[in-house]
Amino acid sequence: MSISEEEQLMIELVNRARLDPLGEAQRLGFSEQEIAQMGLPSGSAAALAGISQLQAAAEAHSGWMLQTDTFSHEGAGGSRAGDRIADAGYVFAGGYAWGENIGYRASSGTIDATSATYNLHRGLFDSTGHRNNMLNDNFAEIGLGLQAGDYLGYSTVMVTQNFATTASRTFLTGVAYNDGDNDDFYSVGEGVGGIRFAIGAQFATTASAGGYAMEFNGMGWQNVSITGAGVSMLVQVRFGGENVKLDLVDFNTVQSSGSLALHSGVANGVLLGLDGLNLAGNHTDNVLTGNGGANTIWGLAGNDVLIGEAGNDTLIGGFGNDTVRGGQGSDTAVLAGQSSNAQVTQTAVGIAITLGGQTDVFAGVETFQFSDAAYSFADLVNGAHLDGSGPTAAPAPTSIQLSGTNSNEMLRGASGSDLIVGGDGFDTIYAGSGADTLMGQNHADEIHGGAGNDLALGGEGFDALYGDAGEDTLHGENAADRLYGGDDDDVLYGGGNVGMTFDGLWGEAGNDQLFGNAGFDFLDGGAGNDLLDGGTQADNLFGGTGNDTLRGGDGNDRLFGGTGNDFARGGAGTDALFGCEGNDSLNGEGGADRLFGGVGNDVLDGSEGQDRLDGGAGFDRLIGGAGNDIIRGGFNADTFAFQDGHGDDVITDFEELNQYETVDLSGVSAIVNLYDLFHNHLSQVGGNVVIDTGAGNSITLFDVAIGDLDRTDFEF
């Protein structure tokens, strides 16, 4: 059952209200007195995921009310909403809950469905009971039935909203749309279908109206790929036991109700709701926008625009010439370097600060935190950072500890959430417990995150970053760095390096994500189900224990799956892929690659190029792909699979007397069956059998006699 654009619009309206109840009341035009009487929650509730069974029950009830001229929660046969939801196939389990709203808009003339949708939403929000259902944070799922028809002789749009939760399941959900009217919100006609949101092997694709929902019960930072319609993006989103709303807007912006880190293919990031979330850019020019909570926003490299919006935000531009706008609240900008080296120029809306060879422009920022002191806007305009009078504003938050000199220092955090900036020396930083932000800045630094979910940025120099306990995010940034994730699920980025130097990334315990980025990299996932991405140039990837995913990227890479059932893709370049132990899937992709399955029942796909495949021990499936390939099955019975255009391939060890070893010709259109094969395509050439697969392609079975072949040797 497809969802209509008006139904998708109402889901977006409901979720906007849940993420920011006060803001929604103001948008809907309620007076301050009316809002005060509503008793709205001060925080956000998680966005709701659209579920087909709930939608089916809702649409059926709306249709029944129109057909019977009835407006009631009691439906056909005296049914309640919970009965109708269950009858539609929704399974209630564990700590389940359900609720229902109904409403209608009627006219003696024609009625516009879109206008009716907005009016119905306002009316339901204005009603205490309906609003309580809409904002109830016990609900995680929604289904809408918007039906147009005749009700009591009037043209009517009837709505049923079904809410539910079951078995504590959670979702990644949202919408993809092209904001043609530039109102920063979904409108009818703007939805984009066919966009795929994926976490590992799980994915959901947007419907024609733009919406999607995918059950996902994982925790911590997760890689989310967004592909389709010319888009290829990768972001990281933090899950914390509730639904996360992740939207794609205008094919270049990602909006999230969870903490968000941009990785590749995406320029802009926006935080939704009122929660205190984190937002990190990438190494391109980003526009990063906070929400109504206290956010920490990092620009990293590039000439970025950081917008705090409401809340007391911490804004860190990073490398590049950045524009920083604080918005409402008491905001702090963090700058790398000593205040005495800063050149401050007042502008029409704020100040420009030149420091360390880059110029940042600030507006609406109350506190400026340098490596030696914190100054207010007035301090800097009056030159207090230069004349020795010192700051007159309130000191920096006690959770911020900084290096004030160019010397080599040891800095220690406390039990809270610390912000520690190393300064210009060779620094050693120990963060302690808490969710900390650690910046090494210049030269070779050593950073220890300690307990808690930390963010560490190495900066310039050959740095060593240790995540320790907690779900950490480590950025080596420039030069050859060493990153150690420690316990729990960590995300590690190597950054860039120079010459023949390389970054070393060790995920250690937990389900980690390692990204080599630019330069030569060494990635070791360690224990857990890890994701390793080499990035550009020649990299070495070791999955370690667990079921790992390895991506070589550009360059001549070597990938070792280790123990577990691993998935490895070589990418561009001449790569070597080793499955090692476990039932692995190896794909060479572009270039002349070498694939070794190792021990286990493996799938090897050379893809493009002149590849060499060796299945090793186990019952393997070997696919040469395009190009002239050399294929060896190894020990046990294997399957050699071919498709049209596979090239001139050689199987070096086909065991024709092993009834379980086969050549799969089901993908070869020129050969239809065994009779056709033996009479039209099979020949003995010296000591080998040659199979003509058409269009100039062939398969050579080395050291095999035609007389030893029979029907057990082939699949069609």
UniProtKB/TrEMBL annotation:
<protein>
    <recommendedName>
        <fullName>SCP domain-containing protein</fullName>
    </recommendedName>
</protein>
<dbReference type="InterPro" id="IPR035940">
    <property type="entry name" value="CAP_sf"/>
</dbReference>
<feature type="domain" description="SCP">
    <location>
        <begin position="13"/>
        <end position="163"/>
    </location>
</feature>
<dbReference type="InterPro" id="IPR050557">
    <property type="entry name" value="RTX_toxin/Mannuronan_C5-epim"/>
</dbReference>
<dbReference type="GO" id="GO:0005576">
    <property type="term" value="C:extracellular region"/>
</dbReference>
<dbReference type="InterPro" id="IPR018511">
    <property type="entry name" value="Hemolysin-typ_Ca-bd_CS"/>
</dbReference>
<dbReference type="InterPro" id="IPR014044">
    <property type="entry name" value="CAP_dom"/>
</dbReference>
<dbReference type="GO" id="GO:0005509">
    <property type="term" value="F:calcium ion binding"/>
</dbReference>
<dbReference type="Pfam" id="PF00188">
    <property type="entry name" value="CAP"/>
</dbReference>
<keyword id="KW-0964">Secreted</keyword>
<dbReference type="Pfam" id="PF00353">
    <property type="entry name" value="HemolysinCabind"/>
</dbReference>
<dbReference type="InterPro" id="IPR001343">
    <property type="entry name" value="Hemolysn_Ca-bd"/>
</dbReference>
<dbReference type="InterPro" id="IPR011049">
    <property type="entry name" value="Serralysin-like_metalloprot_C"/>
</dbReference>
